[in-house]
Amino acid sequence: MATSISSRQLFINGEWREPVLKKRMPIVNPATEEIIGDIPAGTAEDIDLAVEAARRALSRNKGEDWSSASGAYRAKFLRAIASKITEKKNELAKLEAIDCGKPLDEAAWDIDDVAGCFEYYADLAEALDGKKKTPIALPMQTFKSYVLKEPIGVVALITPWNYPLLMATWKVAPALAAGCTAVLKPSEIASVTCLELGEVCREVGLPPGVLNIVTGSGFEAGAPLSSHPHVDKIAFTGSTATGSSIMTAAARMIKPVSLELGGKSPIIIFEDVDLDKAAEWTLFGCFWTNGQICSATSRLLVHENIAKEFLERLVKWAKSIKISDPFEEGCRLGPVVSQGQYEKVLKFISNARSEGATILCGGARPQHLKKGFFVEPTIIGDVDTSMEIWKEEVFGPILCAKTFRTEEEAIELANDTRYGLGGAVISKDLDKCDRVSKALQCGIVWVNCSQPCFCQAPWGGNKRSGFGRELGEWGLDNYLTVKQVTEYVSDDPWGWYRNPSKL
Question: How far apart are CA 352 and CA 400, in angstroms?
Fold first, then answer.
C-alpha cells in the first residue's frame, strides 16, 4: 500500500520554514528498512526562532490574542483541530504506521484518541471561564481573597516516538487550553504526524506562534530547547536518562518540569483467574504497540500453583499473534522502531539467556520476515530478580516471568524496582485486588486488565518513572500557575502605625 510522505519544513510562527542550516534527516520505514523521505533537522538557531515566535504570540495585543483570551475562544481552535484530525484520520494512521511500525489498526485507534483529547481539553478550556476568580474563605471580614489561574507562559514539549502524535497531543492540547504558547520537539525517530499537526494548525487558522514544531535530534534541537532561557516550563516524555539531563538543565534556572519516564511494570496473576482471560490481558499489557510502551506490564508475577499451566497457555497465545507488515490485515505485532532498537532488544534476549533464563517462546526474527526490524513476541522464564531482564526497561516485545507463593511476596516483588509507572493485578477476589492496588508503589494500577488509558484520568509515575500528571484536569494544571489576590475591603484605617497628624 503506497503512502506518500509530504516533504515538510519546520513549523514556526504559523509558517513552514526551512531550517537555518538547511539540514535534513532520513525517514526509515522500520518494516522494510527503506528510506522513504526526510524531515527537517532543526538546530539551536531554529529553536531560538521558535521560542521567539511563541514569546510574541503569548504577549501579542497584551495577551488578548491568546493567553488572556477567553477559554471559549481557545476551545474553538481546539475543536477545529479535533475535527480536522478526524477528517484526516485514515491518512494520519497510515503515516503513523509507516513511520514507527505500529499496526495500522492501533494507529487508527491512536488517531481517534488524538481527536478525543483535543475535544476534551476544549471543554476544560471553556470551564476555565467559570473559574476566573475562585474565592477563598478568610477568617477576617476586612479582607477578601481569590485565586487566579493563569497560563504558565512559553512551554517546551518534548515527546517520544512510540505514540508520536498522541503523546504530542497529551501535551499540546492542555497547554493550548491553558493559554500557553508552545514549542513542540518530537522524537527524530518518528516525527511525520507531528509535522502534519502543523499543517492542521495552519488550516484551522491557529494564531501564528501559538504552536511551533521543530524536528531534529535531541542533541541539536532538544538540548537547546530544554535549556532555553525564554522557556517557562518543560514537559518531557521519554527515557529516564534524558529526563535526568532535562531536569539538570531546568534546575539551573529554577524552571518547572514535568517528567513521564521509563517503567518496568508488574502484572500479578493470582490462582483464581480465568486462564485465557488473564493470558490475553498479559499479552496485551506487554506486546501492544510492539512492546514499546513505557507502562508495559513486562514483569509477570504468577502464583506458583498455576504457573506451569498458565505459562503453557501464554506461549500458545503468543505463537498465534500475527507478526507482519503493519499494513497487512490482522497485524498485531509490527517491527520495533529502528535498527538501534532492534539490536538493543536482541541484546536483552541474549543476555537473559547467558544469565541462565529460559526462552519459552520467541527470541529471534520471525522466519517469514527477512527484512524489517521484527522481533518475535518473547516470553522468558526461570528469571531471577538479579537479572538484567527483570530490572531494566526493554521497550520491545519481551515478557519475563517469575512465580510467587503469597500475596505479600507478590507485592514485595512487584515493588522491587526503581521505577513506579504502572502495575496490574488480576484476580476474582476484588478485596484482594483493592489491597494490592493500595500497596503497589506506582502512579497507575489496572485491575483485571492492563493498559487501558482515558484522557479523563491522570497519567504519570513515581520514583524514577518521573513526577507530575498528564491527562484529566491534572494535565491542564501542568500548564497553569496560581496567583493569590487579596483585597482590604474595610473603610477603617489598618491602624498598625500611629497617624502622625493625630499625635
Answer: 10
Q: How many CA atoms lie less than 13 Å away from 301 in the CB half-sphere?
A: 27
d(CA 270, CA 350): 30
pLDDT at 368: 97
Q: Is 386 exposed, middle or buried (0-12, 13-18, 19+ CB in 10 A)?
A: exposed
Predicted local distance difference test score (pLDDT) of residue 503 = 77
pLDDT at 197: 98
Looking up cell 538484567 gives 388
pLDDT for res 4: 81
The letter for the amino acid at 176 is L
The residue from 52, 96, 260, 470 that is catalytic is: 260
User: Which among 242, 162, 247, 168 has a CA at the least distance from the CA of 211?
Assistant: 168
Angular region, 337: left φ>0, alpha ψ -120 to 50, beta rest: alpha
The per-residue pLDDT for 58 is 98
* Cell numbers that stand for 247 in this block: 531536569
Residue 398, amino acid? I
| Amino acid residing at 101 | G
Helix (H, G, I), strand (E, B) or coil at 215: coil
SS3 content of the chain, % helix, strand, coil (to 5): 40, 20, 40
Residues in the chain: 503
Backbone angles phi, psi at 365, to 5 degrees: -70, 140
User: Residues 428-483: pLDDT tens digits?
Assistant: 999 999 999 999 999 999 999 999 999 999 999 999 999 999 999 999 999 999 99
Q: Can you tell me the distance from the alpha carbon of 59 to that of 260, in angstroms, rounded to the nearest whole number? A: 29
Average pLDDT rounded to a whole number, residues 486-498: 95
Q: Pull the grid cell for residue 498.
A: 500611629
CA 366 – CA 268 distance, rounded (Å) = 29
What's the mean pLDDT when you consider all of the chain? 97
pLDDT tens sequence across 220-229: 999 999 999 9
CA atoms of 325 and 334, how far apart (whole Å)? 6
Instruction: Look up cell 513505557; give the residue.
Output: 294
Which of 470, 416, 479, 493 has its CA nearest to residue 159? 470
Instruction: Report yes or no: 483 and 150 within 8 Å, Cβ to Cβ.
Output: yes
Q: Could you tell me the pLDDT band of residue 1, with boundaries at 50, 70 and 90? A: very low
The pLDDT assigned to 3 comes to 75
Separation between Cα atoms, residue 460 and residue 174, nearest integer Å? 15
pTM of the full predicted structure?
Answer: 0.96
The active-site residue, picked from 294, 361, 433, 442, is: 294
Distance CA 426, CA 343 (A): 33
Question: Is-catalytic flag, 294?
Answer: yes
Residues near 71 by beta carbon (within 8 Å), at least 6 away in sequence: 124, 125, 126, 127, 128, 129, 177, 179
Residue type, 98: I
